[in-house]
Specification:
Blueprint (H helix, E strand, L loop, with lengths): L9 H17 L30 H16 L5 H4 L9 H11 L3 H14 L4 H13 L3 H13 L5 H19 L4 H12 L3 H13 L6 H12 L4 H14 L6 H13 L3 H13 L6 H13 L3 H13 L6 H13 L3 H13 L6 H13 L3 H13 L6 H13 L3 H13 L6 H13 L3 H13 L6 H13 L3 H13 L6 H13 L3 H13 L6 H13 L3 H13 L6 H13 L3 H13 L6 H13 L3 H13 L6 H13 L3 H13 L6 H13 L3 H13 L6 H13 L3 H21 L4
Amino acid sequence: MRKNPFILSSYCHQLFSCYLQQSSSRGHSSFVCFSSSSFGSFGQRSFPHYSPKKPSIRDSEFVHHISTIIKQCRFEPFRRILKPLESKFRPDHLIWVLMDIKNDYRLVLNLFDWSCIRRDPSLEARCILIQLAVAARDLKMAQKLCHEFWTKPNVDGSTSISQFLEKLIYTYKDWGSNPYVFDLFFQTLIQNGHLEDARKLFDKMLNYGVVISLDSCNMFLSRLSKEIDGTKMSLKVFNEFSEVGIKWNTTSYNIVIHSLCLSGKVNEAHNLLLKMELRGCIPDAVSYSTIINGYCNQGELQPVLKVVENMQQKGLEPNAFTFNSIILLLCKAGKLLEAEKVLREMISQGIFPDNVVYTTLINGFSKIGSVTSAFRMYDEMQSGNIVPDSITYTALICGLCQNGKVAEADKLFHEMLNIGLKADEFTYTTLIDGYCKAGEIKTAFSLHNEMIQMGLIPNVVTYTALVDGLCKQGEVDKANELLHEMCEKGLVLNIYTCNALLNGLCKSGNIVQAVKLKKDIEVAGIVPDDFTYTTLMDTYCKSGKMVMAHQLLQEMLQRGVNPTVVTFNVLMNGFCKSGMLEDGQELLNWMLEKGIMPNATTYNSLIKQHCIRNDMRAATEIYQGMCRQGVVPVENTYNILIRGQCKARNMKEAWFLHKEMVEKEFIPAAETYNALIKGFIKRKKFMEARELFEEMRKKGLSADKEIYCTFAEMNYEDGNIDLALVLCDEAVEKCLINDSKDGKT
């Protein structure tokens, strides 16, 4: 094995021991002492002896005279007592006098201040004073002198840094001999961004048997990690410094772990966390929280839960940062109930959530349409004296708008303004979109104008909302004009804006213009998405042009645009309405083969068409296949099947489906009740018919005139005159109202 002759002298060991004792009493960061195996293959250098120019006899007399005066008159202003000697005082005299008074730090400072008023001190004099300041534990002065070096004029980059270091080395042995002076210079280099020079200083000090302190090395690691390619550089230093004697602590590991996570290398960061204990370093809550946040940023929930479990096994409690990261991840994943459980756990541990946590939950509940839960969070937030900000209000406004509660959203918007919060572009756009979806275009444009008056610039999302609103009102030409206005303002159209106009053209029956728009946006470099294709396919399907719709699906697949289940449902509905049941069945089989899971709407189209054809065996087979695939029937599935069975006079099956539907808390449609009641009446099962009729009335649903008349006559014949009259009045009221709504007389 190769020997390492690079060993500290006993003198240096004593120096380090002395410093460590001093630093522990002063609270300074400690230096790391080398072991014999810590050094490279080069011999250790000794610090040079200080050998300044010798003073002449006349200079010696002058220096002695100054020293005597300042010692005797130490409490008098130096400007006054030394004024007669100013003209003869040279830079060399300062150093010679300092040699005489170096053991009296107060005199040293006063003399240095006096000399600085006359002229800038030499680099040598500055380094001498830094050495004396560190030796006197006046670190504030030492730091000040180091930092002043960078503010001096004519600093010549790396050359001046090199000269400064050489002077520190030159003055070290005879003026202070405290290694912290190099630590201080190392920190100054880092703070001024001279990281390469800091690394050179570290390496150079190794040659003299001095190791920069761990705290300063951590400072270097932290600063490196913020540079371009910082993760790579900090890892390199982390590995290289440990080879020469630096024993990294938890803070060091946390810096590197944080850097790795920032650069997306979370698995690598996690591996480093696992290695910490093997290297004798215990991870803390910050170590685990950083990993958790890294996985959260990547949207990986399972690793997060595993790390939290490991953290708790180590007896470490998650901190506010950890909880915040987990709650944000769960909200992004739409797991709001789990996110709220984490909130409760957070509070139970005495960690009180802040505005950000509550706003994250409010935003999450609003996005999934759970406005009640969002406002529950909002009330809890206020009861805890946590002040909501404009982001909180915007999230609530968004939730209300998505639920069609625009009036309530507008009220909350003005409440927000009244308490002094300012609405931004996103707040206005959210409310504008809400009004557009509610068909209140004038109010939406009024808000748009107000937004501009407030100095806010509408963005592409704002214009998309307005375009969509105009198109839904059938004002496609105005929407097109708005798009031109948008382009004139320098805003770049995106696919969502184009889709809004395309949807408007399709709804107005202008399929030719819609197809042209699709080609135009492709020429403009905007790639059509699944919504673009699905909208055009829906229009073709509704007009019975199934070949064109199918061609669009093929084009979509060829271009790598993934169809959604909505796309397939549009095509399925088109096939079924066109009587192309075999094509519909083939489409369903193809979806299952490709692993594309149909939903209830997909199956409902096929079931409905088989019911229309009175082929209840086929309809039942589709229904059973749906259940086997794990697709849960929805309310409309039962409505379709029940009406189909009633039409086929299979009242036993219809009654069974009705009971199953009610057990699942679905409410049958009025048409479903009507079909069941009429089916039972035809079978002379008046008890079942009467039971359904009363159930229907309790739910506020209206039977048709024929059923009202039937039950009115039955009650009249049974002598229930009052009930018969009530039914007649109810029939007149509800049936006449329904007829007037339908435009009948």
